[in-house]
Design goal:
Layout lengths: L1 H72 L11 H12 L3 E3 L10 H12 L6 H12 L6 H11 L7 E4 L2 H12 L1
Antiparallel strand pairs: 1-2
InterPro entries: DUF6241
Keywords: Membrane, Transmembrane, Transmembrane helix
Pfam families: DUF6241 (PF19754)
């Protein structure tokens, strides 16, 4: 009887130790997994922070490159060079950059009364496919109304199969003043 009792107690102790070992193993596994999750979350935050910092640097570099590329492309308007519709569209497109906000802009042509008149005369004497659109837009500009500049920009941008640089709004007076100072003065 004594041996039986010792056998039962032995089994109970062995079973208790087995449960304790399994419990300890489960605890260790959960501790490691949750530590990995915390490290992973911390790494994600660090990566996001680094991305944000690098995005800010990249945006500033991109903005500087855009300004440099626009400055390189500031051009005078030569009537002989804008007699084709494609050249006319390019010139008008670059003129809109003075009035519109877009993430990307390539090239700049200053809007002056003389240029508006020149472009309007060319459009009137042309057989351009979009002649009426150009004449309506430029007539409004001649009358001092540039509220259509976003529409004009995006109309041309779409016909040139633009993928980046869609105009989102008109520039404020201050933004336009800064643009003119930067590229034309």
């Amino acid at each position: 009887m004594k041996n039986k009792l010792l056998g039962i107690i032995g089994w109970i102790v062995a079973l208790g130790l087995g449960v304790a070992v399994i419990g300890l193993a489960i605890f260790i596994i959960f501790a490691l997994v949750s530590e990995d999750n915390v490290d992973s979350a911390n790494q994600e935050e660090l990566v996001k922070s680094e991305r944000k910092d690098s995005d800010t640097v990249a945006e500033k570099e991109s903005e500087q490159q855009d300004q440099e590329s626009i400055q390189e492309e500031v051009q005078e308007v030569d009537e002989e060079k804008i007699l084709s519709e494609n050249s006319f569209m390019n010139t008008l497109h670059k003129m809109t950059h003075q009035k519109i906000h877009a993430n990307e802009k390539w090239g700049a042509v200053e809007i002056t009364p003389e240029r508006i008149n020149l472009m309007l005369d060319i459009a009137k004497d042309s057989t351009f496919t979009h002649r009426e659109f150009y004449m309506d837009a430029l007539t409004a500009w001649k009358n001092g109304d540039f509220s259509n500049a976003v529409e004009v920009h995006n109309y041309i941008w779409e016909r040139q199969n633009g993928t980046i640089g869609r105009a989102s709004r008109l520039l404020t007076e201050e933004e336009e003043r800064q643009y003119v100072e930067m590229y034309f003065e």
